[in-house]
Amino acid sequence: MDTIELLNQHRSQRTFSAKPINNELLSQLITTAQHAASSIFLQAYSFISITDPVLRQQIAAVTTMPFVQQNGHLLIVVADQHRNATLAQQQGLDPQLLSAADRFLASVEDATLATQNLVTAAESRGLGTVFLGSALNDAAKVIELLHLPKLTMPLFGLLIGYPDGENELKPRLPEAAVHFTNGYQEPTTYTAALTDYQQTLQQYYQARSHNARHADFDQVIRGALTSKHPRRELLTILHQQGFLNE
Amino acid sequence: MDTIELLNQHRSQRTFSAKPINNELLSQLITTAQHAASSIFLQAYSFISITDPVLRQQIAAVTTMPFVQQNGHLLIVVADQHRNATLAQQQGLDPQLLSAADRFLASVEDATLATQNLVTAAESRGLGTVFLGSALNDAAKVIELLHLPKLTMPLFGLLIGYPDGENELKPRLPEAAVHFTNGYQEPTTYTAALTDYQQTLQQYYQARSHNARHADFDQVIRGALTSKHPRRELLTILHQQGFLNE
């Protein structure tokens, strides 16, 4: 399949067959992830494969998502300046600058670029994936379970596996809402496009085969603001992990 | 070309021919970017195309990179919860939670996932790209130039264009350094793999056709810690933009 066509067909896959991903394929996916760009080449991320069934259940409990207990390979994606700080200290350098906001942002971006490559590579091999932001519902617990040292931060989980069932494609915001020229555009400048989108998204939510409901983009935002897991502790945890401590 | 092969061939492209990207192709790349996953579907990012030559020179000056003044289409990638906050207010909701660390991280991740899709789509059409972290050398200036409102933050620039010349592929860290099982691994557990990597990277730096020099991964880290642009003001700017203000 053409690469753009493949990317345009992306949807979250939450249910997987029991067929495991073999180690060779997993390794190939990690290699491809690593080929993404990286800020000043610090490659400031790590992937942690969860293969221990007890650990898997503990992380699934953090996510509160029943499907995380089921099939699929579970990765936890980590922003990681700890490796670079350790290597800095080994050559007698003060790693302090790696804890600044700039390097924290870069590590989040490095990790995320690599993960998107991994997702694309997986989908090109017929696998499906779902991001688990819910791995941060109890970030302190994940840090403890995975022995994550200072200057690391878990960002999200990723489940990868052979799809069982298929979801409909979810319509994205109109280009007018996310692509501007020479400066920022306020939503008031593209209200017509947004109104159309509300209708398109409403039709999607009503017609989809799983969890059909009455909703639109307003509802998506309302959901975010009334989340059961607002994760207000994350800034404190970032500080505890040594980040953003200028 | 096979998608994994394409991703594994990625390298930064800093010099472009004068051939412009037509608007239809650019629009196609943005659409594909938008198909990336997004945290709780908030799609919390925006792309800003820089087509005004004066603005382009002002941003090039921030980056201090002469090639930014030359060919290629320039995008600034923005973490954006402002759109969602505005839509929240329109339905009478308090958008405060969108300013928390959790939603800031999600917006950085949304923006970065979308950008990696854009890069992959571009490369599949024979285009090259380079990330410009240097757009944050003076983030306050970029915010002013692009009229970026509260709850937005520029993350990086991206240059896209038809390649003029080609770079060698840069060797990545060994998998042992970035992929662990069931818990974090300290660098002391994979020193042999790191030593090999230092040699591999040294050979790459010595043999490459542009800017060949004596360097290895220790040198990469040393460079990060002695940067001329440590960007220590970024945390303050993030607060000013309304983020991380729990």
What does this structure look like?
Two copies of one chain form a homodimer. In chain A, helix 2 (23-34) packs across helix 5 and helix 3 packs antiparallel against helix 6 (139-145). The mean pLDDT of chain A is 97. Chain A folds into two domains: 3-168 and 229-240, NADH Oxidase, CATH 3.40.109.10; 175-205, no CATH class. The first copy, chain A, is 43% helix and 13% strand. The first copy, chain A, is an alpha+beta fold and 246 residues long.
CATH-assigned homologous superfamily of the largest domain in chain A: NADH Oxidase
Rg calc of chain A: 20 Å
**Most strands sheet of chain A:** 4 strands, antiparallel
Identify low-pLDDT runs of chain A.
none
Secondary structure: elements and pairs:
Two copies of one chain form a homodimer.
Chain A: H1 3-8, H2 23-34, E1 45-50, H3 53-63, E2 73-80, H4 82-90, H5 101-124, E3 128-132, H6 139-145, E4 152-161, H7 175-178, E5 179-181, H8 191-207, H9 217-225, H10 234-240
Antiparallel strand pairs in A: 1-2, 2-4, 3-4
